[in-house]
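User: Sorry, folds how?
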Amino acid sequence: MLVCNISLRPPRLAIAATVAETATAADATTVGAVFEALVDDPASATDILAEYLGEFLSEAASAADSFSTVGAFDAEVIEAAAADSAQDGALLVTYATYDGLATNVVVSNGNRTVLHNVTTTNSGAVSTAFESSGKYYFEVTLQNSTTAQHCLGIIVSTWTSVFSASQLTTNGTVVNLGGSSVIYSNGVSTGKNLGAQAVGDVYSCAIDLTGRLGWFRKNGGNWNADAGADPATGTGGVVIAAGSFAPIVRFGSSGGTTDQMTGNFGQSAFVYTAPSGFGNWPA
């Protein structure tokens, strides 16, 4: 008769351990016992850490490691999380205003509206947003009342900071408003007449500082009073001198105390569509 002596090996005991991980993400904390210590720093993002019996496991790991326990192997996960994280945010974009020199006027509406509340000559306001290249579109609206010898358009950065008609027509590219609103550039009249001004008129300004050309129109009419002119194709523009330019408005000596102009450089919807390739005038 064959007799066999069989000995059963006792099961391993659970060994309490701590899993320590240095990472850059927030992991949930679990408390309990596992069979061995894990050292994880730093690592690949896709490792799967399973419970391991009987040996010390050391591995370079990352914050994206997942941790699996099959059975009742509790553990505590301690992690140092990084403070930085990606955050969503709105990109703040600002546009030009009449935020520069202002003489004998009241500037309001976020520096977009300029009121000539006196009859003093050489009055106006200019922007600080001087640009030397790029294509820009903006609109200027005549409000409340309007009289002769006003101007709107752009001025070169080297002007003498006096709001006289000669300064604007010599050092700028502007519409000289009045009974006949003629475009001036580089000190001379272009002969292009947009017609008599009136309250409520909206003047569109398309300025190409790369190509050194400018276009103006009133109430959606022909650019530069020329049916063949088109800023989108670069045809029929008046020549702009070299240099950096910024938007400007000027009130003449006969201006009434309620004459007002408001510029829109992209802060609100335009009355008329900007020509293709022309963007808002940046601050």
Residues 165-171 form the longest helix (7 residues). The chain has one helix and 21 strands. The helical segments are 165-171. The chain has two domains: 18-80, 102-280.
